[in-house]
Amino acid sequence: MTNLIRFSPLILALFLQAAPKVEEGFTSLFNGKDFTGWKVQNPASWSIENGAMKANGVPSHAFYAGDFRNASFRNFELKVDVMTRNNSNGGIYVLTEFQETGWPKKGFEIQVNNTFKDPVKTGSLYHVADIMEAPAKDEEWFTEHIIVKGDTITVKVNDKQTVSWTQPADWKGGREGPGRSITGPGTIALQAHDANSVVYYRNIRIKPLD
Known about the structure:
This protein has one helix at residues 9-16, and strands spanning 27-28, 38-40, 46-49, 52-55, 60-64, 76-84, 89-96, 108-113, 142-149, 152-157, 160-166, 187-192, 199-208. 4% of the residues lie in helices and 37% in strands. It starts with 8 loop residues before the first helix and ends with a strand. By secondary structure, the chain is mostly beta strands. The longest helix is centred in the first third of the chain and has 8 residues, at 9-16. The protein is built from one helix and 13 strands.
């Protein structure tokens, strides 16, 4: 008798959808094998699965702390391939800095949420420029493309622009507090939101614009 191995649709998708190559001018920040170059708050919430970072567990963030540009970016394009399971929440932070605990206080979060109860959906500049209809689907890879140049942050999901926001001269951080402002350079962070959310991040690449 032949033994058949059965995979869930999500795991099968992870196997069949090979990570695309890094585009010209971009540098990969993740080797697809381990957390070299990353500093993680709560390691129990993170693992590597089929070339992707898997975020699932108590709230935690993985901060880029590698050698490229000394993990300090001001004007750049960032692309991250993301896959979510149903009812999952995550996020991508830019212009931030490492914290031992808690949600990053510095920088901006680009939302990852297609079906989670939070009404703020994928592609939002969280609580700064929110969108309420997800432009992506669960259990399918999508790309969040974040461009920071000068005082403007642009977000695209699968090449569709969701946000273009320019920081006003009198901006004080809005409802998220004074840390949500474009001041100086910072690093990149990925979010594990809660124990019921499963989010995969892969092919994390950046292109400096300065």
